Structure to design on (198 residues):
């Protein structure tokens, strides 16, 4: 997904873009616009009308494809996770000698790229039961994919895997959000700890 600045997404030139009658292309354009807006202004900083206009459609087009803003947010999250799983798998399947360091970089950069989106995800997880269940379902999927990969290599038990996953996620978010340096710890030092936990 291509990130666009909020100004560009709502410019007249953007709205005048030639629309397509292909429902899948329309849906994809809405998802891309939503991803860019959620990642620049957050979940509460946007609405379905802004998403539709940023994608080059009228507000009614949004409701042809999605019930509400939460539904498209969850679709962006699903695609975000697929992108992260694919990026991690590419590192694990590579012949790179320092996979742990590369894996830590991939995870951290993914969290950095989606910093504002992830902040919205964390906030909604705490307050919205539908988002909470969707995130737990995606985490279960992530765990199963990882366990299946590790079964082939005879590694980590489920509890250890979940523990490592939650630690890596929290560390990556803390680095990406700038909390680490704001608390007086060098990013390089925390990155080393992140790498050790992968």
């Amino acid at each position: 997904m291509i990130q666009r600045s909020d100004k560009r997404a709502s410019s007249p030139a953007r709205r005048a873009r030639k629309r397509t009658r292909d429902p899948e292309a329309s849906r994809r354009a809405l998802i891309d616009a939503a991803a860019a807006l959620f990642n620049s202004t957050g979940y509460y900083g946007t609405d379905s009308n802004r998403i539709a206009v940023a994608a080059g459609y009228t507000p009614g087009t949004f409701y042809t494809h999605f019930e509400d803003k939460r539904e498209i947010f969850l679709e962006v999250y699903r695609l975000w996770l697929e992108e992260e799983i694919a990026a991690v798998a590419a590192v694990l399947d590579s012949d790179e000698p320092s996979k742990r360091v590369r894996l830590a970089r991939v995870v951290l950069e993914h969290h950095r790229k989606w910093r504002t989106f992830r902040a919205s995800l964390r906030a909604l997880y705490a307050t919205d039961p539908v988002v909470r269940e969707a995130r737990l379902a995606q985490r279960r999927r992530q765990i199963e994919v990882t366990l299946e990969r590790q079964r082939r290599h005879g590694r980590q038990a489920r509890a250890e895997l979940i523990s490592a996953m939650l630690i890596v996620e929290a560390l990556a978010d803390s680095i990406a959000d700038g909390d680490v340096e704001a608390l007086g710890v060098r990013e390089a030092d925390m990155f080393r700890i992140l790498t050790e936990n992968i």
Summary: The chain has two domains: 6-65, 69-197. Residues 69-92 form the longest helix (24 residues). The chain has a mean pLDDT of 85.
